[in-house]
Structures are given as C-alpha cells and as structure tokens.
Design brief:
The chain is α+β, with helices and mostly antiparallel strands. It is about 40% helix and about 20% strand.
C-alpha cells in the first residue's frame, strides 16, 4: 500500500484528481481529506493515495470522525 500525503504548502503529489481537487478545496474548504485507491493488482496490493489541506488538526479530526462512523455501522 502506498500513501501520498499533501500538506498545506504548495507541493502537489498524487494523481490528477488529487491535484484538481486540491485547487478547488483550498479555496472553498477550511480543511479536507481525500482518500482514493486504484484496483488491486494481481498480487493483492493496492495503491492508496491520501491528500489533505488546511489545518492538520482538523484533517486528523475528519479522519477520526470518519473512522468512528464506519465502526458504528459495523
């Protein structure tokens, strides 16, 4: 599994969708987290990318809240 993180600086990593959404979200959102993945490879590995922007503490809160939401649904 590969994880790509984008911080609040001007460095853009990851796929085009991450780059495009970073531009949109940086103007409209106080903070965001975007996690995407590609189809699994034949060996079972999967490329996972994560981008976030804004206040890192708020981004962490978003991820923790999402995790809690998924755990509640189980």
């Amino acid at each position: 599994m590969t994880t790509t993180k984008n911080s609040t600086d001007n460095e853009i990593q990851g796929t085009d969708i991450h780059s495009e959404l970073k531009v949109k979200f940086d103007k409209q959102q106080i903070s965001y987290v975007l996690i995407t993945c590609q189809q699994p490879k034949s060996d079972g590995s999967m490329n996972v990318e994560m981008s976030y922007g804004g206040d890192p503490a708020v981004a962490e809160y978003l991820v923790q809240s999402a995790q809690f939401h998924f755990e509640e649904e189980e």
